[in-house]
Amino acid sequence: MKQCDLLVVGGGIVGLTLAREWLLRHPGSTVSVLEKEPNSVSHGTGRNSGVVHSGIYYQEHSLRARLCVAGSQDMLAYVEEKGIWTDRCGKLLIPPTESALPSVDVLLERGAANGVPIELIDGQTAQMLEPRVNTQFDCALYIPVTSVVDNKAVAQAVVDDVRGLGGLIHYNTQVTQMHGTDGRVETPQGIFSAGYIINAAGLFADQVARNAGLEMRYSFQPFKGKYWMHCDPSFRMQRLVYPIPDLNLPFLGVHTAHNAKGQVFFGPSSTPVIGRENYQGLDGIAWSDGMALSANLVWKLMRNTNGLRTLAWREAKLLRRAGVCAEISRLIHGVKATDLQTSLAKVGIRSQIFDPKAQHLVNDFVILRDRRCVHILNAISPAFTASFAFSRHVLDHYLDE
Prior knowledge:
The protein has helices at 13-25, 44-47, 63-82, 102-114, 123-129, 151-164, 205-211, 287-303, 308-316, 321-328, 383-398, and strands at 2-9, 31-34, 51-52, 86-87, 91-94, 119-121, 140-143, 147-149, 168-170, 177-179, 184-187, 190-199, 219-220, 223-230, 240-243, 255-258, 264-267, 271-272, 340-350, 353-355, 360-361, 366-370, 373-377. By secondary structure, it is of the alpha+beta class. The two termini are 23 Å apart.
């Protein structure tokens, strides 16, 4: 049996920053991270857009708002310290339709309440910042602090930190059984025993929690996000461009993204799926789990829970290049359907949970403690942005250090 002070299940960015924060606070202590994949970037950590969000979208005082604002500052300081590529390009929010205009004032209020620099600008100013934008409604919101980083380089830097501080990361190690009462975790590679266990298993966090004996009302509802890449390497964007979102839905809508190579992407779609790792075709669907997810999805579609049926119909159009082009053309000009090619590397699954009591998709982070285990559920966007602040919050409020 392998003994440690802290055992983290899940080696994505949330699990890694938790291990790092613990080791910074408790030098010389023993920490092990268990990750079923051969690396830390196979899923959300390596497949997200790399955008460091500002925190304007989230309700005032929500955990997402507070941790996003603090975490974005932490993330930008970290990449600067480590010399990791970043583009402090800022973000423009463009109303795609007239119906989006009332949300402009809501976002201005949320930005002010959350302490995020945000400006209401006219169309001419927006085009000076990004010449490609459409300004049919002669207004836009500008958030200068939004940035892009190399998400995989960030993850590798935190891996190096954890190891440098004495932590152990066990890749290709899947949890088969967890005993929350005595802090014991079984894997094919051996049994681990820990003073505390943190479940940061992302797409599988709900399964791990139930395996550990946690009773909870939440169910899991994955959504697939797919991006398309502009195939002309000379096509460049100076700013991120997003739509003013429908604040009744948990997604931000089709927007632009770019990376250190200057490649420009458009997306994502947000399609409900029945597999936790269903990135392509029928891959990544565990049939027993898929049957349960299918039944839950059909029930939600029939009831149009959270406008899910409406959303699914809208998102189905984004599976085709013409649909993506139509959506992105509301925001910027000069993009044709023939310019787009699929990007398999930027297909992600959102680890979304559903609250049957409220009959609603949960729009905030959820953290539950049960005996010696802390379970991190619903680590949805902006979990990458918030990760450093998130780790402090968990250790401050959920562990008796």
